[in-house]
C-alpha cells in the first residue's frame, strides 16, 4: 500500500537528485546565501496527522506567502468593503509590476501582487497602528502552530528589504497619489517589509495553513479564525493569483490553491484534505520555487488531491 509517508520520501529523493534547481533570489544577501540544495516538505491532514521530510524543520523567509495572512486579517476586519481598494482578478504580470496601476487608477488587480499587498498593509496599519499591526500579525499566526514562540521575524531581512525596496516605495508612493495609500508611506511599507521577513519552517507553515483547509477554523483549538466564506475567497484568490503570471500554469500542473514567496516557499491547500508547505530556494523565471512546484505536482499525481479531479477521494493514500 502506498502511504503518504512513502510518497513524500520518494518526492524528496527525486528533488535531492534534481540537477536543474533554479536560482535563489539575490536582491538581498540573506536570501542570496541560502543553500540551493535545501528541500523540505510538510503535510498536515484533517485529523492532524503530520508528515514531514527533508529540511521541513529549517526556518526560511516566507516572503510573499505572508500575503495570505495579511489578507486574512484585513478581510476579517474590513469585510467586503476591502474590494473597493484592491480587486479580485488575475494580473498576468510580474509580482512587482507597476504598469497596470496607472490605467486602473491606483487600484491593484489583486492582493497577492506587491501593489495589492501594500494596500492590505496600509489597511492593517490604519486599523491597528504601525507597531501594533506587527504584534497582531504574530498573534494571528502563533495560535495555529504547536510551537508558537518560534514564529518570528528576521529583523536583518526586514532591514535589508527596507534598504533596497525602491520599487515597493515607488508602488506605494504612486498609489498614494490616487489616495489608495492612506498612511505615511514609510509606516505602511515598514509593516509590509516586516511581514515579508516572517520566518517559518515548512512544518510551521503547513500548520498555519490549516485554517484554510478547514473552512476557517483553527483545528488545534476549534476556534473560528475567519468565516467559511472568507476562507473560500482566499483559496480562490490563491488559485487565480498566488503565483503571479505563473498562476495559470501552476493551477494546471498542481490543481491546488497555492501561494509562493521569493524565499522559495509555497503554501498549498487541498480543501477538507490537507495543508501542505514546501520549500526549495531555487526560483523559476516567474519567481516561484522551481522544485517546490514540481514536488507539489508529484504529490497531487500520487494522491489525487487536485481540486479539479472528478473524484478526489479515490486515490487518497493513508
Ligand atoms: N514575491 C515575493 O516574495 C516578493 C517579496 C519581496 N520582499 C518584495 O516585496 O519584492
Automatic annotation (TrEMBL):
It is an enzyme of class 3 (hydrolase). Keywords: Acetylation, Hydrolase. Its EC number is 3.5.1.2. Substrate binds at residues 64, 114, 161, 168, 192, 244, 262. It catalyses: L-glutamine + H2O = L-glutamate + NH4(+). GO terms for molecular function: glutaminase activity. Belongs to the glutaminase family. Homotetramer. This is Glutaminase. It comes from Gluconobacter vitians. The gene is glsA.
Amino acid at each position: 500500500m502506498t502511504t503518504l509517508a512513502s510518497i513524500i520520501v520518494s518526492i524528496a529523493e527525486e528533488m535531492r537528485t534534481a540537477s536543474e534547481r533554479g536560482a535563489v533570489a539575490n536582491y538581498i544577501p540573506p536570501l542570496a546565501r541560502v543553500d540551493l540544495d535545501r528541500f523540505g516538505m510538510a503535510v498536515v491532514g484533517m485529523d492532524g496527522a503530520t508528515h514531514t521530510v527533508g529540511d521541513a524543520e529549517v526556518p526560511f523567509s516566507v516572503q510573499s506567502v505572508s500575503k495570505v495572512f495579511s489578507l486574512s486579517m484585513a478581510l476579517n476586519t474590513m469585510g467586503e468593503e476591502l474590494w473597493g481598494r484592491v480587486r479580485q482578478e488575475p494580473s498576468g504580470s510580474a509580482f512587482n509590476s507597476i504598469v497596470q496601476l496607472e490605467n486602473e487608477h491606483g487600484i491593484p488587480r489583486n492582493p497577492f501582487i506587491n501593489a495589492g499587498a501594500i494596500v492590505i498593509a496600509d489597511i492593517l496599519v490604519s486599523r491597528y497602528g504601525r507597531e501594533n499591526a506587527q504584534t497582531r500579525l504574530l498573534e494571528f499566526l502563533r495560535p495555529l502552530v504547536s510551537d508558537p514562540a518560534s514564529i518570528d521575524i528576521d529583523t536583518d531581512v526586514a532591514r535589508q528589504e527596507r534598504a533596497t525596496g525602491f520599487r515597493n516605495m515607488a508602488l506605494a508612493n504612486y498609489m498614494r497619489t490616487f489616495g489608495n495609500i492612506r498612511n505615511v508611506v514609510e509606516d505602511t511599507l515598514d509593516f509590509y517589509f516586516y511581514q515579508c521577513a516572517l520566518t517559518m519552517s515548512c512544518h510551521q507553515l503547513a500548520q498555519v495553513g490549516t485554517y484554510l483547509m478547514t473552512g476557517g477554523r483553527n483545528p488545534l483549538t476549534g476556534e473560528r479564525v475567519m468565516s467559511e466564506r472568507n476562507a473560500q475567497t482566499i483559496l480562490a484568490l490563491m488559485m487565480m493569483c498566488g503565483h503571479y503570471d505563473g498562476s495559470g500554469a501552476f493551477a494546471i500542473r498542481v490543481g491546488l490553491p497555492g501561494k509562493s514567496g521569493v524565499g522559495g516557499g509555497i503554501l498549498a491547500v487541498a480543501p477538507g484534505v490537507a495543508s501542505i508547505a514546501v520549500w526549495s530556494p531555487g526560483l523559476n523565471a516567474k519567481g516561484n520555487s522551481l522544485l517546490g512546484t514540481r514536488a507539489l505536482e508529484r504529490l497531487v499525481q500520487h494522491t489525487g488531491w487536485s481540486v479539479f479531479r472528478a473524484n478526489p477521494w479515490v486515490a487518497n493514500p493513508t
